[in-house]
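Forwarding the complex inputs:
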Amino acid sequence: MSSPSLPREVVICEVGPRDGLQNESTLLSVENKLALIEGIIDAGAKSIEVGSFVHPKAVPSMADTDEVVKRLRKIDGVEYRGLALNFKGVERACEAGVTKVKVSVSASRTHSRQNSNATPEEVITGFGKCAAFCSDRGRELSGAISTAFGYTDEGIIPLEEIYPIVDAYLDLGIREISMSDTTGMAHPGQVYEYMTDLIRRYPDVTWTLHPHNTRGMALANIYAAMTAGVSHFDASFAGLGGCPFAPGASGNVATEDVVNMLETMGVRTGFDLDKVLTVARKVEEYVGHPGDSSMLRVSGF
Amino acid sequence: MSSPSLPREVVICEVGPRDGLQNESTLLSVENKLALIEGIIDAGAKSIEVGSFVHPKAVPSMADTDEVVKRLRKIDGVEYRGLALNFKGVERACEAGVTKVKVSVSASRTHSRQNSNATPEEVITGFGKCAAFCSDRGRELSGAISTAFGYTDEGIIPLEEIYPIVDAYLDLGIREISMSDTTGMAHPGQVYEYMTDLIRRYPDVTWTLHPHNTRGMALANIYAAMTAGVSHFDASFAGLGGCPFAPGASGNVATEDVVNMLETMGVRTGFDLDKVLTVARKVEEYVGHPGDSSMLRVSGF
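Prediction (whole assembly, two chains):
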């Protein structure tokens, strides 16, 4: 077999301020969140998921996202992404001033019912108004598919169940879709198969892999996705973001671990590893416990 | 790109009793070591690196390897491998009754000098007597190449420096060679490149990858190695085996993490995951601290 072709450069979206912090019981101040976001931009991030616009009682750690976004410095070439799960959230995100809104649907019917009390199709239908709203205001809209590879209560999600969700996103004019391995069940063989198929079937979509490291496979999945042609990845400083379905388990893959792997492979990330490590140490200090970061451990912290 | 071909089944050698335990300050009793080895055999292991035959003052945790091996039940189809670094060790290993002796040389000249006060070539020359001794007694001999991908003090080891070591092993009649990523520096691109080249150049050698998870890349490296045609891997229960050069860093990849990834990929390992987890929990109890195991964490232990 010839050497797998890899992208020469990738985009890593830092999702720590949202996915990393959302389940933390220690609530960070707006100032600390801004310091983290500014630190990761200084480290090279061009895309940051800065928070979610959900009900403050549902996710207390995200209650101040509006203020965080309003106080962010606008920087050319830096994208601030905000997660919203309904029209109210999209309104708030646009009002606060995010560059891009991300909406999300669960590929698992079980998970979708638990999360939204609706089928995936019903959730997608609800995004029509959000898409029109964003379009009117010149804001980009991207779509995430959570539990895209599998769900603990349901097992593997067949690829065929992903197609109608993608089609629905395309109908809304969305051209950037994130495949989220929410429960960290995906393995590199599956990631390679799914992403190869989706890229072939939907070549105009910008595909992102959002891996979780719950079972230690995140870097393997990123490598497999790259050999399939994926060049956009989500990661979280210090590997924060424990899966709520598995207490104690790892969460998102650590940004510093991804940067280290890719840079040593000669794949450009635009990140400065030392600066990412500095931010990751600060995050651990803020939340008051270690995350899950191989590079922090090996660097003696 | 067509789907990478993967082996249908692999051999995982459980190296925990040697590489996992050798740096532990808590010394296990012979009974506890035997319980772990018997447990991992019951979990499906067909190859176990049961200890090393080195000077007891240099590695106190391995001082009782002779007794451990003597007390092991001989089981058809189960291989007991012992590591030796000189003729004295090979003599002891054969006397104790291992099925296979593994000798080792460091590909890094710096590391080789630190470890053996000799050049890699001098170390290899010294193995001639070991090979004759094993051959006379009908014992198999395998060769390991430590720091085969890189060394912290030296950086990347070029592939060209591996060839003369392989040639020297072949001259001794050795046909099973382990590429050890001692410091966990290898990335999947390098592993793919090196293993593809070595398999093409030396098709009659049984190649093993011995990954360390120091920088979180062990599972990615195993996946990359499988796509290159490797089907033999080393792993350690609970991911024990911290790298002495990076205190606090991860060591060997956890056997349970490898078994989980491969079995979910449809690659047969012959291991029962639940039984491996039981052994891994017992190891953590014996050594008195957690190892580095994603599957133990996600299983709520």
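Chain A touches chain B through 43 residues (CB under 8 Å).
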